[in-house]
């Protein structure tokens, strides 16, 4: 198990166990014990690792299949880590900085980027995606359309979000009214891409545009199921298997328009 987990991590461009543990939201000692083969991990943990590293739980547990899985929809961010890279994210023509969260450098120190993706309270919109050469490869990232000055202390201590993985996204549509109105912005922590509690998340089915929805676990369901809830009472609630759902990040804050 450990060797396959390490191979999957490296293939996903996580250069160290420390960075992988941080992205997964687990302790470094726990992750290292799994990767070093000291402790075996369950199917549920394998599924969590597989989603982060772009592989399958079956490969991690038994070695069946390939450790790489093709994705039909571009990620909101790449798996590159800015602390481990020498290249900075500049436009080829020297213009605006408009790339993935990791390679983007703010024009205003300490700013949080708003990306060219709109979370649908109904149907979402994926805006412009730009390819950026980094080292010997390429990184795809969403265009940055605005910068927001949100105190790091607030993000970390009040919103319980990782400042280095936080982005701003606009809400469109009416399915989350009256909580979230069209034109409102939300703070999304991309590192919290697993369902840990019943709350509001940015989600996708892996094929369609991202949406903002309230998720609620279905108790005692096997395999685990989740209710996808719209705050608009006129709309229907859906129930799906949790493993079929792509969680982009947890909604950690709300910037409402008056």
From TrEMBL:
The answer to whether UniProt assigns keyword DNA-binding to this entry is yes
Q: What is this protein called?
A: HTH cro/C1-type domain-containing protein
An example of a GO molecular function for this protein is: DNA binding
InterPro entries of this UniProt entry? Cro/C1-type_HTH (IPR001387), Lambda_DNA-bd_dom_sf (IPR010982), LexA-like (IPR039418), LexA/Signal_pep-like_sf (IPR036286), Peptidase_S24_S26A/B/C (IPR015927)
Q: Which SMART domains match?
A: HTH_XRE
Alphabetic keyword roster = DNA-binding, Transcription, Transcription regulation
Residue intervals of the HTH cro/C1-type domain: 5-60
- Top-rank taxon, per record: Bacteria
Q: By its UniProt entry, which SUPFAM superfamilies does this protein fall under?
A: lambda repressor-like DNA-binding domains (SSF47413), LexA/Signal peptidase (SSF51306)
């Amino acid at each position: 198990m450990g060797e396959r987990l390490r191979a999957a991590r490296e293939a996903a461009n996580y250069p160290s166990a420390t960075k992988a543990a941080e992205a997964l939201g687990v302790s470094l000692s726990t992750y290292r014990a799994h990767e070093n083969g000291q402790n075996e991990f369950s199917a549920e943990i394998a599924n969590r690792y597989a989603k982060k590293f772009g592989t399958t739980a079956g490969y991690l547990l038994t070695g069946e299949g390939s450790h790489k899985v093709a994705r039909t929809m571009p990620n909101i961010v790449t798996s590159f880590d800015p602390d481990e890279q020498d290249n900075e994210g500049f436009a080829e023509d020297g213009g605006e900085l408009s790339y993935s969260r990791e390679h983007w450098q703010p024009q205003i120190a300490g700013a949080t980027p708003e990306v060219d993706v709109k979370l649908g309270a109904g149907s979402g919109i994926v805006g412009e995606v730009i390819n950026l050469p980094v080292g010997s490869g390429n990184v795809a990232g969403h265009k940055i359309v605005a910068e927001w000055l949100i105190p790091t202390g607030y993000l970390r201590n009040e919103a319980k979000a990782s400042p280095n993985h936080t982005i701003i996204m606009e809400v469109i549509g009416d399915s989350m009214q009256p909580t979230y109105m069209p034109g409102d912005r939300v703070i999304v922590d991309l590192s919290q891409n697993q369902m840990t509690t019943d709350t509001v998340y940015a989600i996708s089915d892996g094929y369609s545009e991202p949406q903002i929805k309230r998720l609620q676990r279905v108790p005692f369901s096997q395999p685990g199921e989740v209710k996808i809830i719209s705050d608009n009472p006129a709309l229907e609630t859906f129930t799906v298997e949790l493993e079929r759902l792509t969680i982009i990040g947890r909604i950690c804050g709300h910037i409402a328009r008056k």
